[in-house]
Write a structure and sequence with these properties.
transport, Plug_dom, Immunoglobulin-like, Beta-barrel_TonB, 5-stranded mixed beta sheet, tonb box, 22-stranded antiparallel beta barrel, CarboxyPept-like_regulatory, 3 domains, single chain, 13% helix, 957 residues
Length: 957
């Protein structure tokens, strides 16, 4: 029996070994030769059969079969030309270079699900700007400008150097709800939520591509990512070795240079690159026509609001910036701010620079280790809701990244000095430095794995931690300086389930904990991806995204403007504490000597003006009136019962920034914002030439914030103080003096005649005094006073408190459409259209008191569209042209509130590339010089032309 089992075992082993050795196999990877990236999800099939496989997230495939060689492999992928490859022998290192059918499409993205996947199957709306597009259409100065023609993206060109980006949400000036990252590292200012584009260290010659994910992504990326993700992906030194040198020059005295040098080992396992740039140019500056008009129609230019020196603020015993800065150290004198003596204190140039290095290891095909670090510095004008400022800072950063199969981990550290005493950041309207030193330590770990035998699912799980700290010396964070830690920790999970061959379901959720508001948040996501055909995908998703205010919006506590030095300022207080007015708020008058009055007083009480004028007028009347008459008049004027009643003129509470009516309404402390969004989308290609994307989304937002004035500014108007006061005094003096004279024995007729004469004289004196008082107060009529909440500093100034209003609800829907038609591999045309059905809400629509005067705006146009053409051969002539249209819209940005200009802009470029790697390009933004302001009171933006010379050698041209 034992021999029988041995025979069976021998037969089995012989069959198994024979079968195994009769199988042939081929393995290798599929790459895009133009971008040096792998092609994920490519199909490899034995010609004439259904036997095949697909490439994994690293572009690798392995096909095993017992059919005899040679094999004909049919290789295909969406967006690429189908290719037939003959394999004559077994191979483990086959490399197939798959040509793009439409070279403007990049079919692999890593940003939609934080892992590699075909863009066609991504559970979000995605666009990709490839290296070819960036090289051909680049405007050279700032890569962020390349996003201007992407569907759904709003790029604000605030000045020559300052850009901001937004998608599908409320646009801001100084911060963004978009999450910009460079090689997985956040570019958002540590702890303060700002995106300083020109200080980010981005360098065009080192960019491989830009991936844009529209819509909320907080389920994977964390709180605050409610509008989208912009992922700048740099070139790998292993995949793209060589040296590139770029020189630029153009209008606005723009000049600069960039260099990138990358080397790799012979076995392509180690690579190193160094990347540096320096750029400088003139700004679009204010010309003096910007400004505001008060109630009397008096114009005040923005430039006249600027201080003529910059000081390092003195901190008072209250732990805040002191009202009196007369003894504060002077950091910059007028000659420093205005070296050309033209009266404009604003810096008229910008400059930025960066240098960084990257070391990359690939010990195995599925393993990557990246170590990087660098420094960026910048000096440029910026605009926020509180006014104009100059940002100057130096930033250092370092990053370590590890990938092995499905495991991804990274840690990075950023240290930004926020400026220095020799090169301070400051606000022009206060003349006080605003140095905010900040650091951020962040880490992520993520693991991706598949379970083909369990629900045929693809899982992603991860955790991340963010710790941001700031140091302002109480000069910006004031009373919150010792309580400004900003820590966010979160865990997340996503599962992609194959419901059927054509339908995928994506479920994701994230849990975050926030220390600074002692709260937690859950951000779930559900998406369905229906692959109707290989080139046509439909998508539906529902997201609940969460966001919290930035550290800056939470802890800020300092003056941001001083309209009347020593008397009245604008004080910004963050959301760390609520601003409350109490049951009986009072008006604190700007004019010295005027007593506080209850809010709701209709106008200036005549008693106030009477009390201010009477002491001095009695002195003049004593010299003017007969000695026998003056004591009687004095007794009448000093009798409390004779103080004139009633008011003159009208008090109106309004928002200092927008001019809209405003009542004192308490604020709320920082809280979690929620955006519930539903989206339906389509992406398809027709004949490998026409690409169509269409997205419809609906957003229900609650708990969102908006910068605004919290204190009503009190305007004094429609006054007739001189006549009202003199008339009341004349009547009283005449009547009572006549009675007094008769009581002293004077005949009635004579007493009345004398009283009329004296009454007229006294009334005339009060008329003159009232006129003088009005002349003295007229400059203050527009800011006659303010209503201070409890957080206003307690000193001798009137503080108009500003802050962040948290609203209850806003609903709107929008559309993003995009088409791209590849006439051939070199020539394509594109167009896109975006709109929202609503971009402004009044108090009633927000669920607020209709009398509060509160408003909320998205600060984006209701409608915009782009049209363009791109001619991008590998060598020879190349060109691009694009037309941009933005509707006018009302923006609510403090001093920059108002209706924006309609934009009809044409950008164009032409260039020539030689086969030796040398290229020359000339680009022009706003070709026909349509002069416009991005927002009211910002500088006029005009034409800008840039020439660029680039030479690449020693690697892939």
């Amino acid at each position: 029996m034992k021999n029988f089992y041995k025979v069976l075992f021998f037969i089995y082993l012989t069959i198994h070994v024979t079968t195994a050795y009769s199988q042939n196999f081929v393995s290798g990877k599929i790459v895009n030769p133009n971008t040096s990236t792998v092609v994920v999800g490519a199909t490899v099939v034995l010609n004439g059969t259904s036997i095949g496989t697909t490439t994994d997230t690293s572009g690798y495939f392995k096909l095993v079969n017992n059919r005899p060689l040679p094999w004909e492999l049919v290789v295909s992928a969406v967006g690429y030309q189908t290719q037939t490859v003959t394999v004559k022998q077994t191979s483990t290192s086959l490399v197939i270079r798959l040509a793009e059918a439409n070279q403007l499409l990049s079919e692999v993205v890593v940003s939609a699900s934080r892992k590699a996947e075909k863009v066609q199957n991504a559970p979000a709306s995605v666009s990709v700007l490839s290296a070819k597009v960036l090289n051909t259409a680049s405007v050279a100065i700032d890569p962020v400008r390349e996003l201007a023609n992407v569907p759904g993206v709003q790029v604000q060109q605030q000045s020559a150097a300052r850009l901001n980006i937004e998608m599908r949400g409320s646009a801001a000036l100084f911060d963004t709800q978009v999450f910009p990252i460079l090689d997985y590292r956040s570019l958002v200012g540590p702890g303060i939520g700002t995106f300083q584009s020109d200080g980010s260290g981005l360098n065009s010659i080192d960019l491989q591509r830009i991936e844009i994910v529209r819509g909320p992504a907080s389920a994977l990326y964390g709180p605050g990512v409610v509008s989208g993700v912009v992922h700048f992906i740099s070139k790998s030194p292993i995949d793209a070795p060589g040296t590139s040198i770029e020189l630029i020059g153009g209008t606005l005295n723009t000049f600069g240079g960039s260099v990138r040098h990358a080397i790799r080992s012979k076995d392509k396992k180690v690579g190193f690159k160094v990347n540096a740039h320096f750029k400088k140019g003139d700004e679009f500056t204010l010309d003096g026509s910007e400004g505001t008009r008060n109630a009397a129609g008096v114009f005040t230019s923005q430039l006249s609001k600027f201080k003529k020196q910059v000081q390092d603020p003195i901190v008072s015993d209250q732990g805040i910036v002191a009202a009196n800065q007369s003894a504060a150290p002077i950091l910059l004198k007028q000659s420093d701010l205005d070296p050309d003596s033209d009266g404009n204190m604003m810096q008229n140039f910008w400059q930025n620079s960066s240098i960084n290095g990257t070391l990359e290891f690939r010990p195995k095909s599925d393993t990557k280790i990246v170590l990087a670090g660098g420094t960026n510095s910048y000096s440029s004008v910026y605009y926020n809701s509180q006014g104009e400022g100059l940002g100057q800072a130096t930033e250092y950063w370092t990053q370590a990244r590890f990938q092995k199969k499905g495991l991804f981990a990274q840690v990075f550290y950023v240290n930004n000095n926020g400026g220095s005493l020799s090169k301070p950041s400051f606000l022009y309207q206060t003349g006080l430095s605003t140095i905010v030193a900040r650091q951020q330590l962040e880490g992520q770990v993520q693991y991706n794995f598949v379970t083909p035998k369990f629900l045929n699912a693809d899982f992603t799980v991860g955790a991340d931690y963010r710790n941001a700290t700031t140091e302002t010396g109480r000069k910006v964070y004031g009373r919150n300086e010792e309580d400004d830690d900003y820590v966010v920790a979160g865990v997340y999970a996503q599962g992609k389930f194959e419901v059927s061959k054509k339908l995928d379901a994506v479920l994701a959720t994230r849990f975050d904990r926030f220390n600074f508001i002692d709260a937690s948040a859950l951000s779930p996501r559900l998406a369905l991806v229906y692959k109707a055909a290989p080139n046509h995908t439909f998508r539906a998703s529902y997201n609940i995204a969460k966001a919290t205010p930035s550290g800056l919006n939470t802890f800020i506590d300092f003056p941001v403007a001083v309209p009347v030095p020593g008397l009245f300022d604008v004080w910004l207080s963050g959301q760390n504490k609520a601003q409350k007015f109490g049951d009986k708020p009072m008006i604190d008058f700007t004019a010295p000597g005027l007593p506080d009055l209850p809010y709701g007083t209709p106008g200036l009480p005549l008693a106030v003006a009477y009390g201010a004028l009477t002491p001095s007028l009695l002195i003049s009347l004593q010299a003017a009136l007969p000695a026998t008459i003056f004591p009687l008049v004095q007794a009448i004027l000093t009798n409390p019962a004779n103080v004139p009643q009633g008011t003159t003129g009208k008090f109106t509470g309004y928002n200092l920034f927008t001019g809209q009516p405003l009542a004192p309404v308490d604020t709320k402390t920082a809280q979690i914002r929620t955006e519930k969004s539903f989206e339906i989308g389509y992406k398809g290609t027709f004949n490998q030439k026409l690409t169509v994307t269409a997205d419809w989304y609906h957003i229900n937002a609650s708990g969102f914030q908006n910068f605004t004035a919290i204190s009503p500014t009190i305007r004094f108007s429609d006054q007739n103080l001189s006549a009202d006061l003199s008339g009341a005094v004349r009547t009283t003096v005449t009547t009572q003096l006549a009675a007094a004279l008769q009581a002293n024995g004077m005949p009635a007729a004579e007493a009345m005649a004398t009283a009329n004469q004296i009454g007229a004289a006294v009334g005339g004196a009060y008329a003159q005094g009232g006129t003088a008082l009005v002349n003295q107060l007229t400059p203050l009529f527009g800011i006659f006073g303010t209503v201070e909440p409890d957080l206003a500093p307690k000193d001798n100034m009137a503080h108009n408190m500003a802050g962040y209003r948290i609203f209850g609800k806003a609903n709107y829907w929008g559309i993003d459409l995009g088409i791209n038609y590849a006439i051939n591999n070199d020539l394509s045309v594109f167009g896109n259209y975006s709109m929202v059905n609503k971009n402004t809400w009044n108090a009633t629509e927000l669920g607020e008191d209709p009398n509060s005067g509160l408003i909320y705006t998205l600060n984006i146009p209701k409608s915009k569209y782009r049209l363009g053409l791109l001619y991008a051969p590998q060598t020879g002539w190349r060109a691009n042209v694009a037309f941009q249209h933005d509707d006018s819209f009302f923006a609510n940005f403090g001093q920059y509130s108002g209706d924006t200009d309609v934009k009809n802009l044409i950008d164009a470029g032409i260039g020539y590339k030689l086969k030796n790697g040398l290229s020359l390009d000339l680009t022009c933004t706003n070709l026909f010089n349509q002069r416009y302001r991005t927002f009211v009171n910002m500088p006029i933006i005009g034409r800008r032309a840039i020439a660029k010379l680039t030479y690449t050698f020693g690697g892939k041209k």
